Amino acid sequence: MIIRLSDKIYRTLSTPIFFVATLLLMSCDSNPTKSYRESLNWRTFNTANTGGGLTCDRVRSIVADKMGNLWFGSCGLSRYNGSTWESFTNTGNAFPYSIYSIAIDTSGELWISLVEYFTDKGFIFRFDGTKFTEIDPDSEIFGHKVAWQIAVDSAGVIWFATQGRGIIYYDGASWDSVKQRTPFKVSDYITSVFVDRDNIKWFASGSKLVRYDDINWTNYISPGPIHCISQDLDGLLWLTSLSAGVFSYDGSTWTVYDTVNSGLSSNYVLECATDRDNTKWFTTDNGVCKFDGTSWQTFTSRNSGLVSNYVLSVAIDLSNHKWFGTFENGVSVLK
Questions:
Q1: Which residues on adjacent β-strands are paired with residue 86?
Q2: Which one, of 107, 105, 109, 46, lies nearest residue 78 by Cα?
Q3: Measured distance CA(304)–CA(41) in Å, rounded
């Protein structure tokens, strides 16, 4: 807030009082935005202030492991242990890939989906903490198509949502596709895969939501195209859309949240994560939206310490801190 002194009041100020007032104003933080950001415990990491530990400032994927480490997928793989950043590549030179998805299996190893620059070929790597192993499934099953998302079920089976090969999975011994196993046609273009707390597998393709409980396949039609699937602490599914906002699904009823009927700042919503208080955090191209079940709040680069309004990814760590990966400005964390 700016307070303007009128000329009349200004002339009545004596020199000593004016001098003291000037010193007080100078002693205040000249950047009120900075003070506001710091008061909310925001912090930003990028390639510059991590010494290259964050390999690129476009961060598409963030996951937290059981040891408290944060893993970041950009144009390389990065790890943050709470004090130190470290980057990993599969060679000593350039890493010619962009990471799209990271999942952690039951043994703690990372499964990483990558896209090669210039060719748009998809690759899958496994990372044991030290070395990368390229996974080369049968070309008839995978065919170097892009795996948009990866999920791991309670039995350790790795599931992939692919562009062009539908749903494929790896059980630790062999690769397979579900094409011939479903009672209805499943698209070759799968945008999302998610394993819920009951080990139910969920897949999305356009407006179609598919449920698989290891025995039965069930098909649902959502209110709009689905980009990403998640679940809150009550078991409610939350599905984001790149054009229609957010949908929740309780097993029988769909609820739509958009810029018209809610506090959502954009209908272009990429990811959702739920914190330990059951509050939902949505990433959009117009900031981060927080929904506690009753009220909405939007964080942007103008009203908070969020470094960019275009936010691609979100993860909640073991301390309930919220991590946001942006399109080209690194990572912001809200503690």
A1: 79
A2: 46
A3: 10
3-state DSSP call for residue 144?
A: coil
In whole angstroms, give the CA distance from residue 129 to residue 306.
Answer: 30
Residue 318 covered by a domain:
yes
Instruction: Quickly list DSSP for 284-322.
Output: EBTEEEEE-SS-EEEE-TTTSS-S-S-EEEEEE-TT--E
* Rounded distance between C-alpha atoms, residue 143 and residue 186, angstroms: 18
Which amino acid appears at position 312 of this protein?
A: L
Residues 6+ apart with CB under 8 A from 9: none
Q: Which helix (H) or strand (E) holds 61?
A: strand 61-64
Q: What does DSSP say about strands 122-127 and 246-249: parallel, antiparallel, or unpaired?
A: unpaired
Question: pLDDT for 86-103, tens place per residue?
Answer: 999 765 545 678 999 999
In this structure, the chain runs to a length of 335
Q: What residues make up the domain containing 157?
A: 33-334
Query: Are 54 and 71 in contact, with CB atoms under 8 Å apart?
Result: no
Q: What is the domain count for the chain? A: 1
Question: Beta partners for 123?
Answer: 114
Which tops the pLDDT comparison, 97 or 47?
47
Q: Report which of 305, 237, 226 is spatially closest to residue 270, judged by C-alpha positions.
A: 226
172 closest CA partner among 147, 189, 152, 188: 152
Residues paired with residue 103 on neighbouring β-strands, in sequence order:
111
CATH number at residue 133: 2.130.10.10
Closest CA to 218 of 206, 203, 231, 205: 203
The greatest distance separating any two alpha carbons of the chain, rounded to the nearest whole angstrom, comes to 88
What pLDDT, in 10s, does the model give residues 158-203? 999 999 999 999 998 888 888 767 777 788 999 999 999 999 999 9
